[in-house]
Design a protein that fits this description.
Radius of gyration: 21 Å
Helix content: over 70%
Largest sheet: none
Shape: globular
Strand content: under 5%
Order of helices and strands: HHHHHHHHHHH
Number of helices: 11
Amino acid sequence: VVVTGLLALRDALHQFSNQWLQPGEVRSGLILAALALLVYPLAPNTPLWQGVLNPQVVVRLVIVLLVIQSLAHVAKRLMQARHAVALSALASGFVSSTATIGGLGMGVRAGEATARANAGAAVLSCVATMAQIVVVAAAVQPAWLVRLWVPALAGAVVAGAWGWWRVRGATGGPEDGTTRPQLPPDTAMFKLRDAALIAALLTAVQVGVQLLTRWQGDAGMLAGALLAALADVHAATAALLVQGGPASPMAPAVAQALMAALLVHAGSKSAVALASGGWRYALAVAPGIVAHTLAFVGVMVLWG
């Protein structure tokens, strides 16, 4: 039946492989398949140093990040060009929402775009922040998903609605057409180096927070998480969640530290917006960042 189906679809498959699929995407697909089918099963599934370091968990996190980037790449090719800025910001948010906000701010300062349009795209990148909190939880401590998915969904909905409201009707020029963006043939579906660096950063922060926790207890865990959140909230999330599950004695301290880390991270993003794009850009970005962060924190308090 499978062979018959493939024979019946041979013309469509031939057209897909020759006209739509790009060489860079083929290479990316092979790399992703090798990681998922060869590297991941062979990686040792042995928790090291009280469960902080697990090679298979690190590889799984890299694979998840690559899959997210790949889906964003495919969506970008399928969607119309007038949505390219917003979608690019959303995809870049899975690498670094803070860096995305800074890059869009520099575009505003250089006069390449309006503050409203780029501010909307900047807030849309925060949807990726909420999504990656769930991804990190699933990778390092799946038991926390019960507590985190509803707050993350609330934060993502607020960020998406706010960002889309800012983007809609704000862009102008040729990108408002109905054509799809044309990417170079060698464009990869993901950046393996970026995903590996993010996984390495998450692991390093986990180790640092573990050291502070063993040294200073809950106060050390909170201090480490807040310092990590200044640069990357996902690293802080991973470092906190590995301290214990939602039913462990550490759970209340972990939840409070996570909410505090998100609030610090919101302030850090707002400061980056001000420094990169000026006060008009910051005033357009900061309310959306604060709103989606408060949505996450508020729902987590009620959900808990």
